[in-house]
Structure formats: C-alpha cells, structure tokens
C-alpha cells in the first residue's frame, strides 16, 4: 500500500507547479511596455533561478536538521506571499515576485529528499518518475485552468493577468493547508544549532564553495560528481522551457496567451502519459546511464529544430512530440541515480547543493540565451542543443 505521505507530497507538488505554470503565459504582460521585453523576461527568470544558489543548500540543510515538513510549510507560505505581489500588474513587482518566489523554490530539494526517505529501494525510480509525471501534469492543468478561467468569464485582454494572478494566490493558499497536513518523513532529524545555520548561510552565499562541498560529498558517494555535472549540462539545455514563452510570443509564431495555454496542455498531457509508462514499466529495468546517453543524443537535433520552425504551428507540435519521447525523460533518470548515492544523514544537503548548482546553471543559461536573443531569436536553440550534446558525452563516460 502506498504511503499516504507520498500521495500528499504529490498533491503539494502538483498544486505548486499548477500555480507556476498558470502564471507563465501572462508574464509577458508585466514587461510588454519595456524595450526588448524578451530580455526582461529573461532577467526575471534569472532572478527566480539564481537566488536558489544560496536558498536551496540552506533549505536542504535545515530539512536535514529539523525535518522536511517545516521547510515545505515555509515554502508554501513564501509562494503565497510572492503570488500576492502579482495582483497589481507592474513590472517592478514582477521582478520582486521572481526574487521572493525563488527564495522558497529550493523546496524541491526537500521534496526529493522526502520522496527518497519513504521509498523502498526497488520503488525509488518509479516514485521519482511519478514526481516528474506530476510536474508534467501541473504544466497541463495550470494553463488549462487559466485558459478556462479567461474563456468562461470572457475576461477582457487588459484584465487577464490580474484574474490569473488571483487564481494563483487562491491555489497557493490551498497548498499552505496541505503542507500543514503532511507528517514528517525524515527518520531522525537531529536538529541544527544557530551557529551551524549561520555557517550554512555564509557558505551558500559563497558560490565558490559549492563545488568544493560537492567534491567532498563525491568522495563519500562515488559517481555523484559526474551526475551533478550531467545535471548542470541538462539545466543549461532545458533553459528553453523558460525561453519558450518569450520565443513564441515575440518571435515569428506570434502566439497569444490562449494559444500558449493550449500548447502547454498538449505538451503536458503527452509528457504525462510517456513519463508514467516509462517510469512505471521501464526505468528500473534498463541501464539508466545508457538510456540517458541515447535520449540526450536523439534529443540534441530536436532542440535545434525548435529554432528552425518559422511560422509553422504544425511543425511546433511535431517537434514537441519527439521532445516528450526523448528530452523530457532524462531528468528523472539523473535524479534516481543521484538519490541512490545519498544517505539519511546528508540527503537534504546533497539535493540542496545540487539544486544550487542547477540555480547557478539556470542563471548562466538565462544570461546566455538573453544575450543571444538580442542577435536573433532563434540562436538560443543552438546553445540549448550544444548543452544537451554535453549531457550525452558525460553519460557515455563510465561513472
């Protein structure tokens, strides 16, 4: 029988992703009056992801010391307060939202630690794979609910952002309640002294210490560092998730909020089905490293193809279908291999450090694709494809 805590964690993840994906299509509204809006969207993304450099390791350390539940409660409250900032549709508050929401988005390191805490060894890949499928489901439901809200209420174009932001606030409030219902998953939280926490904050703020700390963990858990590097390269490549809204709204496709919502519904629905089947029936029966290699190798030309679509909506849907069969499956495999190289004592810390490296990679890739988009809106996809090729190369090397 599945642990009820696992089901509750899945529900919290689902609502959190629904909130984030629902507001995605309205983000261009906050910066449309600024010059080069695609660059300002990239800046907002950089704030959201870059702040996790210090937030994720800190939250991971706290979850090892005090448990996963308190961190998830604080994160849910932080998301609620950040979403409240979106109710006045102003560019300045958009940037404040991106920064403040990024502070508590480090909870995903804690989420993965909690799932690993209560998963049997033979179900670890399956449970983390279901997490990936649920994230994909959230990407479906978020735009779908936002699109239905705007359609059923026939909301005028100038008020759409306010309505969707109100929806996000309501759902994030619900997640606060669910987080309080969650029972602790950490088997033996040992506590953490004030000095240890201050030291963790100081270390987390210093980006240069991230790699040295991971290197120390790598000596305890062989193969961990190569997986972290693989995760970093993958994060560089999946920066296209954050660039996509700007690309299709400002570029040749000229998609509006409803068209973007419908696209994400298709993308997410297909991704859910494929992820569920793959992680339920195949992921723990195959050579995961070899699978990462082939999926990344086949996915590289797919990323390049996004930049060559022109005005073809049919082409966009064909490319994203192949995307779901390749690129979208890689993340869960890396996370599963990484989870196997943790222990109860340092699981939250390792996932936190890894998420901080992902935050650093996301920050860098955002700066890169923002700069490339000023030259040509299609150029960032060459960068994304090259980074995915690096994932394939790293996976080809033995751990």
TrEMBL record:
UniProt entry keywords in alphabetical sequence: Membrane, Transmembrane, Transmembrane helix, Transport
The keyword Ubl conjugation appears for this protein: no
Name the record gives this protein: Tetracycline resistance MFS efflux pump
Compartments where located: Membrane
Gene3D superfamilies in UniProt: MFS general substrate transporter like domains
Membrane topology (UniProt): Multi-pass membrane protein
Pfam families in UniProt: MFS_1
Residue ranges constituting the Major facilitator superfamily (MFS) profile domain according to the UniProt record: 5-399
Chief place where the protein resides: membrane
PROSITE patterns cross-referenced by the UniProt entry: MFS (PS50850), SUGAR_TRANSPORT_1 (PS00216)
Transmembrane segments: 7-27, 39-59, 71-96, 132-155, 223-247, 259-279, 291-309, 315-334, 355-375, 381-396
SUPFAM superfamilies: MFS general substrate transporter (SSF103473)
Purpose: Resistance to tetracycline by an active tetracycline efflux. This is an energy-dependent process that decreases the accumulation of the antibiotic in whole cells. This protein functions as a metal-tetracycline/H(+) antiporter.
InterPro entries: MFS (IPR011701), MFS_dom (IPR020846), MFS_trans_sf (IPR036259), Sugar_transporter_CS (IPR005829), Tet-R_TetA/multi-R_MdtG-like (IPR001958)
Family according to the record: Belongs to the major facilitator superfamily. TCR/Tet family.
Signal peptide coordinates: none
């Amino acid at each position: 029988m599945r642990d009820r805590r696992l089901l509750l964690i899945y529900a919290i993840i689902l609502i959190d992703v629904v909130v984030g994906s629902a507001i995605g299509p309205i983000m261009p509204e906050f910066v449309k009056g600024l010059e080069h809006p695609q660059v300002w969207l990239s800046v907002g993304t950089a704030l959201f992801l870059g702040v996790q450099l210090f937030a994720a390791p800190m939250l991971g350390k706290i979850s090892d010391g005090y448990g996963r539940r308190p961190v998830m409660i604080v994160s849910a409250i932080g998301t609620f307060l950040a979403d409240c900032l979106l109710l006045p549709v102003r560019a300045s508050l958009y940037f404040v939202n991106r920064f403040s929401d990024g502070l508590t988005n480090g909870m995903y390191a804690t989420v993965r630690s909690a799932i690993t805490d209560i998963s049997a060894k033979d179900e670890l890949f399956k449970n983390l794979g279901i997490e990936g499928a649920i994230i994909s489901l959230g990407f479906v439901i978020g735009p779908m609910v936002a699109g239905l809200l705007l359609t059923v209420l026939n909301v005028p174009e100038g008020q759409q952002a306010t309505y969707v932001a109100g929806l996000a606030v309501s759902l994030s409030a619900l997640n606060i309640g669910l987080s309080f219902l969650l029972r602790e998953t950490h088997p033996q939280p040992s506590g953490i002294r004030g000095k240890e926490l201050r030291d963790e904050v100081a270390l987390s703020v210093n980006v240069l210490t991230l790699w040295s700390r991971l290197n120390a963990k790598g000596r305890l858990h062989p193969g961990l560092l190569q997986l972290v590097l693989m995760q970093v390269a993958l994060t560089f490549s999946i920066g296209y998730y954050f660039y996509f809204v700007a690309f299709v709204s400002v570029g040749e496709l000229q998609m509006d909020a409803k068209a973007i919502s419908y696209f994400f519904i298709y993308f997410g629905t297909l991704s859910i089905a494929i992820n569920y089947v793959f992680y339920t029936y195949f992921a723990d029966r195959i050579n995961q490293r070899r699978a990462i290699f082939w999926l990344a190798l086949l996915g590289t030309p797919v990323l390049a193809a996004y930049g060559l679509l022109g005005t073809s909506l049919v082409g966009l849907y064909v490319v994203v279908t192949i995307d779901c069969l390749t690129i979208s499956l890689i993340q869960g495999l890396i996370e599963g291999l990484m989870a196997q190289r943790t222990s109860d004592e340092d699981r939250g810390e390792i996932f936190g450090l890894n998420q901080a490296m992902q935050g650093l990679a996301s920050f860098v890739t955002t700066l890169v694709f923002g700069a490339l988009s000023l030259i040509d809106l299609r150029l960032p996809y060459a960068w994304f494809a090259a980074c995915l090729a690096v994932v394939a190369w790293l996976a080809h090397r033995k751990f």
